[in-house]
Each structure stands twice: as C-alpha cells, then as structure tokens.
Amino acid sequence: MSTTAGGTPGRQAGGTPSKHEWLRQRLQEVVAGLEPHTPLPTEREIATQHGVSRQTVRRALDALEDAGSIYRVHGSGTYTAGPMISKTLTMTSFSEDMTARGLVPSSRLLAAEAMPAGDRIGEQLAIPGEESVVRLARLRLADNRPMCLETTYLPEARVPELLEQDDLERSLYALLHSAYGFRLTRAEQIVTGAVLTGTEAALLRAPENTPALRVHRIGLDDRDCPLEVTESLYRGDRYDLRFTVRREGE
C-alpha cells in the first residue's frame, strides 16, 4: 500500500481503506515487532504521530483489541498481548495443555505446607475440617512466561510424605500417578471473572487491574472420590476457554 508524504493512505487497486483500517494495519505492524505486555503510546500521542483524530485511533485500537493483539487496563494504558492459549473442556493438566501447544511448561513453588482443611476445603474434599491437607501454591509458566497462579489442596492422609518429594514443581498429576497410583478422571469447575491486584499482578508480571479468569476445580479420581481442590488465577489476556454447546433434542 502506498502512502503520501503526510502519512495518509494512498489508493489501492481494491479502493482506499478507511482511516481507522489504515491505522489498524500500521499499528498491527508495530505491535507485531514488540514483546508481549509492552505499553503503547496514549491515544493522543498516536493521533498526533499519524495525523488522525482520536476517534480514528480509538476505532483502530478497538479492532486490535477484538483481534487479541492488544489489551487495555483501566487507569493504566494499552499493552501488546501475548499469545492466547485456548483451554478446551477435556480434562488435562496445565503441563499437558502447554506441551500440546509446543510450549515448555514449568513451575515455581511459592509455598508447600500441611494445614487443617477447614470447613470449606474439608467439605469439598469430603473430609472433616480438622483433618490435615497439603497446600501447594505454585506459579505456572509457559516458555518461562507467567501464565497462572495455582493453589492446590490434597488430603494428607491420601498423599503421605508428599512434602518430602524431591520435585514439587513438575506436573502434579504426573506425580500423583507415579508416586501414589492416582489418576484423576473428571473435575467439577467454576469459572469467574476477576482482575489482578497487588501481589497477583506482580507475580504474573502484569499491570494491576489486568483482566483474569479464576477457576475453582474439584478433581475426582476413578472412584469419584475428591482428591484435589485447586484454585487457579489465569491471565485473561493470555488464556481463554473454548467449548461447544448443543441445543437439547438435536
């Protein structure tokens, strides 16, 4: 596409693109050359740089946001987005999800301890609240980039000496199978919207108020006994859920 000296779009064989489409294309080229989560100039700065109105800038940015190329954080600014990971309804671990997409999964252990289950976790694990659970808090990464914060609770009676295992940073599902013979076959999950604040944002290397997905999962073994309660907080700009729905009777 040719441009005039002033930077406005020139005529193509297929016609002249609208200003916001021309600007979207220019900004997409810029975004493609930047690292994920790089802050972009303000709307005013982009408008001045390209000689267009702020309304044109806003429409171009809206299109880039819809395409998943950028994301906005209220009160902070606009940032380039990282690659989006789609999670299907098939029960897979984080490590399996990342490996299937050609990414290298890893974890950083933030906390590992035994503690009383309490009423809420105890009820979900079908154990008395005074019984002990193992709590593991981990930062999950893909190609060394933070993807989610994950806290898992397991009945200590079913995973004795889990805290003595050498590597609690590898796939937990693989560890449960190799060390204890457990295989989780299904899970009940609740997904809600959230925003990252404080320590969460710092650990996930994201601006505060970045959109996030909070996933609460109860994992059950092949006898339908609850074995894990996991609370995960995913970066909303890098993760989505994808599933198929069908109308009843069809």
From TrEMBL:
Known InterPro entries for this protein?
Bact_HTH_transcr_reg, Chorismate_lyase_/UTRA_dom_sf, Tscrpt_reg_HTH_GntR, UTRA, WH-like_DNA-bd_sf, WH_DNA-bd_sf
Q: Which residues form a coiled coil?
A: none
Name the domain of life: Bacteria
One of the entry's Gene Ontology molecular-function terms is: DNA binding
Q: What Gene3D superfamilies does the annotation carry? A: Chorismate lyase-like, Winged helix-like DNA-binding domain superfamily/Winged helix DNA-binding domain
| GO biological process entries | negative regulation of DNA-templated transcription
Annotated SMART domains: HTH_GNTR (SM00345), UTRA (SM00866)
Record-given protein name:
GntR family transcriptional regulator
